[in-house]
Amino acid sequence: MGWFIGIAGRDQSLKNSILSLTSSNDFNVETESFFLLAGGHHQTTHYQLDEDQQAGWVASGIGISNDEKPKLYDLDDWDQAIGKGVNHLHQINGHFSVCRWNDQTTELITDQLGIRNVFIHQAKDFVLFSTRLDWIKKLIPHTAINCEKFGSRWLAINQFSNGSFIEGVERISQGGHATINPERVSISNNRWSHSHREVNPQSFINALSNFSTLPLKQGQPLSLGLSGGLDSRTLFAILLQQSNSNWTTHTFGEARHPDLKTATLLNSFYNKEHYVFEERIPEAKEIEDLLPDFIGQTMLTSTPSHFVGFQAYKKIQDLGFSVIDGGFGEIARRRFMNNILLRAKTALLKKDIPALIPFLRLDRSDIFTEECNNSMISGLKEELQEEIDAMPDITEIGIENWLDLFTVRTRVPNAAGPEQARSDNELLNYMPFLQPDLIEFALNLPVKDRKNARVFRSFIKRNASKLQSAPLIKGDYSYPYWMKDYTSAIWMRIKQKLGMKHESPQTIDFLMTMEEYIRDLHNSQSAKEFSAYDHRKIDQLITGFYDDNNKDLAHQLNWWLAFEVFRQI
Predict the structure, then answer these.
(1) What pLDDT digit, counting tens, does each position of 143-172 carry?
(2) Residue 56 pairs with which residues in a beta bridge?
C-alpha cells in the first residue's frame, strides 16, 4: 500500500498469526508492549526507528508538500513532517496513513481527505490496528457486518460516513487521529473544510500543472492513464507543455471499447508512445487465489470482474513508471450530483431525506431479507441525515459548492480510497485532482468558470487544440466534444434508450469462467447459514444466469459474488 499492521498492548498473542498473514515485510519492530510490521512498494513505504528501538514511525502512501511548488516527500521530508505533529500532517497534500510510537503511546494519523484509512479493534489487553480492514477481519473471530451501517455502502452511490460497517472495528478516516496508551484509546475524524480566497482560472491551471508533473521534476519517468474523458485529456494537454519528455501514456481495457479507441486517437495527434493493456481473464484457479485479496482491499467498492483490468498495474510498474490519472476531475468542473441540482433541489433545501434518497441510490444486488433491507434503509437515512446536518448552510456557500463539498467529504474517502490504498502496494500513483490544495482552488473558482468545464476547455483550446477533434467518453457512451453538460446528458439518455451503449462481454465471460467457484460458494454451509440472505432470491439469481441463460442478471450476480467473497474472508 504501503501497509502496516500492529499490536499495542502487553497481549501479543496475535503476533504469529500476523506474521503468517503477511508473506513478506520491509520493516518490523517488537518491544514488550508493541509489535509492528510494514511493507509495500518502496516509494509508498517510509519508516524510521530510533537508535534505542523504543520509538519510530511508519508512513504508508505518499506525502506532497503544501508549498507553492509542491514536491513528493522522501524519507527526510517525512521525518520533518511527522516531527511537526498531527496538525501539520493534516495540512499537507497526498494520501497516507502514519503510525508514530514511543514506549508509552501509539499515534495513528490519516490524510485530511481520508483517502488512506486505519482500522482499529480494541480488545481487553491489546489494540489491533492496520491499514487493511480485511486483515483485521481475518484476525478477529466472529466479525459481523452491521446491516444499518452497511446500508449506504450497498444501497447508495457510496457510503456517506467515515464510520466502519464491521462490528467491533473502528475506522480512522478523514483528518483522522487516534491515540493509544495504557489508560485509554481516543479516536477522532474531522470532516474536510476549506478556506475562502480569490482564485482565477490561470492560478488553478498552474496548481494543477505543478501537481501533475511532480515525478518528472524529481527525475522519475511518468505515465498518464489516458481515457476518452475530459479530465485525463486536460492532464495530457498539461504534459504536452513540459520541456521534459520523459513521459508516456497508457490505457487498459477492451480494444473495442470507445474509451480505448479515443485514447489511441488522442495519442496519434501528438505521436506520443501509448501502452495499451488489454488484459485476459485468468484461469479460474488463479482468480480463486487472488480474488479474496482484491475484494478484501477494495471493500465492496469494485466488482470481481474489475480485477481483470487492474492486472495491468504490475506491468506498468515493471516498466518503471510513476502514474497519474484524471480521477475526480469532475469536482473542478461541477459535474458531481447534477441530478440533485436539476431534479431534487427543493428536497435538498428542505433536507427531505426520503425525497433525496432515490437520487443517491445505486442498485447492486437484491439478495437480502426484508428485515436486513429495512435495517439498511434505516441506516442509510440516518447516515445521510447526519452528514447533511454537518454541512455548512447552503445559502452561505451556494448549492453548487455545497454539492462539491459534500462529494469531497463523503465520496472521496469511501469511493476513491480503497482502490488507491490497494494500488499503492504495486506502484507510485496518485490523482492530481484529489490534492486538498487543488480542491480548495477549484471550490474558490467562480461557478461560471467551472460549469461546462470552461477552464479545462479553454486551456485545451489554447495549448493542445487537436485534442478537441476526438469525441468525449463517459462510461460506455460517446458524445461530441462541443456538447455542454446538459446537452451531453440528454444525448447519452437518448443513446441509452436507442440501445446504443457499448456492451462489454467481459463481465459475462468472467462469470462464466467462475461458474464452478460461484456455485460452490452458493452451496457452502457458510452461505446457507447466513441469516441476512434471502436464499430464494440468490437461488433464482444463480439458476437464472447459468441455467436459464439470462445474462441480464450478470450485474447482480457480480455484486453478490463480491459480497460473498468479502463476507467469507
Answers:
(1) 899 999 999 999 999 999 999 999 999 999
(2) 49, 101
Going from the N-terminus, what domains does the chain have, and what CATH number goes with each? 3-188 (3.60.20.10), 201-328+411-497 (3.40.50.620), 333-408 (no CATH), 506-567 (no CATH)
Helix/strand/coil (H, E, C) string of 521-535? HHHCHHHHCCCCECH
State the angle between helix axes of 284-298 and 515-523 in degrees (0 to 180), rounded to the nearest 10: 60
Handedness of CA 162, 63, 310, 517 (dihedral sign): negative
Please check whether residue 73 is in contact with residue 2, taking contact to mean a CB–CB distance below 8 angstroms: no
Rounded distance between C-alpha atoms, residue 159 and residue 113, angstroms: 15
- CB atoms under 10 Å from CB of 147, counted, come to 21
In SS3 terms, 357-381 reads as HHHCECCCCCCECHHHHHHHHHHHH
Q: Are 534 and 368 in contact (CB under 8 A)?
A: yes
C-alpha to C-alpha distance for 129 and 228, rounded to whole angstroms: 40
Backbone angles phi, psi at 233, to 5 degrees: -65, -35
Q: Return the exposure string of 189-201: e unless at least 16 CB atoms fall within 10 Å of the residue's CB, then b.
A: bebbebeeeebeb
Q: How confident is the model at residue 434 (pLDDT cuts 50, 70, 90)?
A: very high
Tell me if residue 392 falls in helix, strand or coil.
coil
**Number of helices followed by number of strands (H, E) in the chain:** 28, 19
Element (H, E) at 193: none
Mean pLDDT to the nearest integer, 535-561: 97
| Residues linked to residue 58 through DSSP beta bridges, in sequence order | 47, 99
C-alpha–C-alpha distance, residues 547 and 536, integer Å: 15
Count CB atoms within 10 A of the CB of residue 157.
Answer: 17
Between CA 6 and CA 220 the distance in angstroms is 32
Classify the phi-psi angles of 93: left when phi > 0, otherwise alpha if psi is within -120 to 50, otherwise beta: beta
> Does the bond joining 2 to the residue before it have cis omega, within 30 degrees of 0?
yes
- 325 forms beta bridges with 225
Cβ neighbours for 113, distance < 8 A, ≥ 6 positions apart: 95, 174, 192, 408, 412, 413, 434, 436, 439
How would you classify the pairing of strands 322-325 and 222-225?
A: parallel
Instruction: Retrieve residue 307's grid coordinates.
Output: 480485477
CA-only gyration radius of the chain, Å: 23
Taking residues 222-243, report their average pLDDT: 96
Q: Which of 499, 495, 457, 505 is nearest to 474 (CA)?
A: 495
Give 413's DSSP letter: I
Assign 256 a pLDDT band (cuts: 50, 70, 90). Answer: confident
CB 115 within 8 A of CB 417: yes
What does the pLDDT look like over 476-523, one tens digit per residue? 889 999 999 888 888 888 888 888 777 788 999 999 999 999 999 999
DSSP for residue 111: -
